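note to self — DONT lose this again. spent like an hour looking for the file last time. sequence + predicted structure for the chain T wanted, 356 res
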Amino acid sequence: MKKHNFNAGPSILPRVAIENTAQAILDLNQTGLSILEISHRSKDFQAIIDEAVALFKELLHIPEGYHVLFLGGGASLQFCMVPFNLLNKKAAYLETGVWAKKAIKEAKIFGEVAIVASSGDKNFTYVPKGFTIPTDADYFHVTTNNTIYGTELREDLDSPVPLVADMSSDIMSRPVDVSKYAIIYGGAQKNVGPAGVTFVIIREDVLGKVERNIPTMLDYRTHIKEGSLFNTPPVLPIYTVMQTLRWLKGLGGVNEMEKINQQKAKLLYDYIDQSRMFVGTAEKDSRSLMNVCFVMKPQYTDKEEAFLEFAKSKGMIGIKGHRSVGGFRASLYNALPIESVKALIDCMEEFEKANA
């Protein structure tokens, strides 16, 4: 039976990236060595990381003055690296969900944190609008896509202070005006690769302005200077990132990818909106293209487990909602084919006809 992978992360990857990575594990470029055993100082790996950086810059049209880094520690380490490097006295944050709250918690270690707006009053089912960014903040931090609640900020804000964005779950899903950001970071394991590597896009001129001493490994300047090779980087995940970005470029890049993602999301949201059994949880003007969150209407909540079992029997993987909110979540990341979305809709429709 064909499996349809809706996991929220680690998540679906392009088949060609998986196959090429598998081949590289056996033999990298006919060197007789596995990608798992080559030196990160070798010419073979330098070519890999150089291409991965170049593809990031090309696909997102990253302007001069920015660096692309590949680091360890996940986006969670960036929650503290950002304030460590940028926060002198005060930072501003937009609170839109669990990951934003985690980032805020870390920033408070380093100085004052102003929460400019929060959607916590409605369980993070919308993205706040009409807020004012304090001009005395050292930076303003946003989480562009909220995987748990299915909301997304799809505009590049104008900020009077350096703008920092956690784009773990929607990077490369749409065009981004990188010039509006000081730092964009995220875990790779949604749209650009497997778990184990973190991307950081950083404008160098925002660094070197804090008064504190920064440990060597937590100083962005260390990794800029050494080209992400200060210590041994996650070699295998970076290789898969390169392969994934090659695939994306072959599709036509992020502009084409956005069209595909909009089409996938519209199909599923349109079905949910007319359903007698299912209902979306995010407010319509804040809906994520990456993570579609929905529940059963009150009269059908006793059928949730039955639906999950039915969906599993039809090959649907990873549609159970996050434990903190329940319900269901279908993650429609770049590599998920539209056929999988149609299969999920067929599955939901069949269950609804039999049970509603």
